[in-house]
Structure formats: C-alpha cells, structure tokens
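cache lookup: miss for this entity combination. No prior model stored, computing from scratch. Input as submitted by user K.M.:
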Amino acid sequence: EAAFLIRSEGAGGLAQWVLVELQGEVVPRQSGGLAGSLLGDLHYTCEGVPVLIVGHHILYGKVVQLEKPFAVLVKQGAGEPGPAGPHTHYTVTALIKTKLLFKTRPKPIITNVPKKV
Amino acid sequence: GAMRSRAEVDATLQTAKLNPVELLPAVHCLSFGPQAGAGDCCLLQLEPGLCAELEAGRSLVIRGEKDEQAVLCSKDKTYDMKIADTSNMLLFIPGCKTPEELNADQASCDIIHSQVAGFSNNYWELRRCRPKLKKLRKLLMEDPYEGPDSRKDQTLTFSKYTTEDLLSLIQASEEEILHQLQIIDACKIEGYWRVLEFDYEMKLLNHVTQLIDSESWSLSKVPLRTCLEELGSLEPREMIEHILLSYGRKYIDDAGEVYFEMHEDKICRAIAQMLLQNAVKFNLSEFQEVWQQSVPEGMTARLDQLKGLALVDKTSRPETIFLLKVEDLPEGNQERFNSLFSIREKWTEVDITPYIQDLCAETQTVGALLTKYARSSMQNGVKVYNSRRPIS
C-alpha cells in the first residue's frame, strides 16, 4: 500500500488537548512502568503562570498559543478494519493549539531544613 | 495508585512553600494513562490551512512507494514530511484546561484528574513542496493513444490509468493532479486518462487547420458544429472536440453556438516540434523559413513561441536550433542544473529561465535559484551562468 489515510471526524469529533513540554526524560520512578503512576500537580497562579510540582521539584512555565497547531494521530490496529474501512491507517483523535512550556530549571523543594539549636 | 485527595494536594503546596492565595483554586493532578507508554500516538505539526481542513472533517493522505520520500497531501496541496527531534519531552494531555478556561468556567472542579495520553520527543514536520508530477506524464506516455484505428488498443494492456490509479501512484494532491492533466491535454477515453501520441495529435490538428483554411474561417471563430459535421467521418467526434479544446479557447456566442478562438502560439509551437524532432539540429534560418511556410495562413511563427521546447545556438556558424524539452529534464533542482550545464557550459538568464521556471516554489524566483545553483560571470559584456562545480 503506497497510501496512508489520515482520517478526521471533523470539529465535532476532535478533542482539544494540551501539550506539556518538559526538559529531560520521563523515567518511571517505580519498576512497574509508567501506566497509572503519578506525574505531579499542575497549578496556575492568579496571573495564569503554570506551576508544576513534580516529585521534589517546582517548575515554572508559561502558556504558549501554538503558531502551528499539532494533530494527534492514533494508528489503527493492524488486524481491525476501522469504521472508515480497511484503508484508514491513522485517525486524528485530537488537536493541540496550546502548550505549557516548562523551560526553567526545576527548583528543588527542600524538605528537611535543620533547625537552629 | 489511588487518586490524590485535596488534603494531599494542600500538603504538597505547603511543603513547596507555595501560597494557595496566589493560585487559582483548581488543580490538575497529572498521572500517566494506561496506554501512555505504548507509543500509539504521534504528533503532526500542521501548516496553515491544514487545521481547518481537519476540523472540516477532510482527510489527509500520506503518499509514497518504498523508494520515494513520503509526502502528505491535502485536497489541493503537497508537503514534504520530516521527523523533527526535540531535546525536550512533549506530553499530550486530554482534558487539561488553560487558565482562561478555568476562569471562564465558574463551576470548575477543585481537583481535575488528568491522564497523560502519550508522550514523544519528536513530531512530523511539514514543508510545502512542489507536487511530484513528472511521474504522471511518464505513466501516461507508457501507452499514448494512437487513434481508433490503432491495433494496439484492442489488445489487453495494463498501462492504462484511472483517476483512482493516478491518486495512488502520484505524490500530489488530487487537485494538483487534475490540474496537471489539463495542462498536458490529457483526455479520458473509456474511463482511462490518456495522452495522444504526437503524430496522431498532429494528424487531428492538421484536419482542423486545413478545414479552417478551406472554409476561410477567422482563427478566432471556429465553429464546433461544422467541425464535427465535416470531420466526423474521419475521426471520432470526441477527438475532434478534444483537439479544439487543446489548441483553442472555447466560448459560446449569443445564439448559443459553440466556437473556438485558436491559440496561434500553441499551434505554431506544435508544428515546430513536428519539424524539429526529425533531426538532431537544424540550420536556424532554414528552419525558420520552413516553419513559417508550415503554419496556417494568417499565423506568424516566432522564436519566442519555442521557450522550453527548443534552444538556439548563437555560437555556431551558421546558427542552429535543436529540440530541448523541459519536460524531458530531471525533476530535482540539482539534477536539473547538472543536466542543463552538461548540455551547455554557459547560459544567459534569458535562455535558461524557461528551463528552470517550473522549479520555482511558491515564493522562489528564478534569480534565487540561479544564486543558489549557479555561478555568474561576464562574457562579452553579457552576464552568463555556469555550474558551481565541475561537471564530469
């Protein structure tokens, strides 16, 4: 097959997702892998600055409206013909028009500060 | 793991020494969804216009055989595809709200449990490109139509292409393919797209020009009805109409009659090709004499009609002219320039322009191409271009 169809359901069927851009790699803390494990808490200041608490780090970021939005493509299962027929290879499941960009170096959270005697 | 509670979120805020008063009340507790690590999702960066296409429910198609670089096509545009790597991690999160959305929604939940659907450190990047249409002509030239009397067509051949066939084989959008079919004067015969074999095409054209001459019609008012009546016994009616459409502009007069305004330049050009294809090169002045005698009464044969078809050699004594068709040259930029410089070492801008004009992308000019792929110098007071590198 020399052609791969990217099928879209149209605005009604397209979700709006958000992209979170982080420095570094995503590494599972537990040996059991990523699925189900916690990433962190995402807050916004009253001024709209995103604040992400991941483990012992605080990350400050900014909300960016993407000049070029992304489409999230999901590959159709190899064995199952999709509702669009056997030639559908990808479905556009969502559009991403906004990203939360965390470029600042994470500030470590100091949990145990020795008290002065 | 169990979902985080408000108490746990507040405890984390306290440990982090963040003041809840300075934060919006809603918090997203992010975790990884069950399929997050599976790699089923990928990101496609959208060029202007493509987002609207997808929102309108239109599909995009990735086209390319194993030996071709993949392209992405919308209904009317073609894009090169490339993987762009980032040093950062991109997480895609459904149901994650922006500050504006949270502020707008008065009833926004206190804790929003959001699952990361997937993550990636790369995405597909697109760049608008010229549709790869050279293959279209190549496919149709495998089996040009030689007329109804040709015995060839009665045997079963597999070198015939429907619109669907062409869509699956050509790396271009449907609109770009249909537009190109019109430009190369292709026609549909029994459901297959065909180009006419040149001799047959000239035979048809000759029928029409002889009829124009014998009827003393104005070249700008050739009646379809009479052409079909007079020539219908010689050639299929569809072919007569096709040749008129290829070499003329169709219009309808106030009485509803169909006429054609014949393209003088295109007719003269075709006759020149017919003359030039019989030898490697011709004495220029001899050729011009024969050519003018061969074109229909009332038409003027001019060398500027031959841009991209023939080249004059002003350095030979006597001056000569030879056939050089731009559509026979390579499609890629560097390969095209290599080919042109191997035919002639130094080119003036006037001479080379018809042979590189089609390489110009949306915003590119011939000048920009020359700057990139050629080196200029002066020769006898005239600016000429030669290759940047030695041609073997």
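stored under new cache key. Chain A touches chain B through 62 residues (CB under 8 Å).
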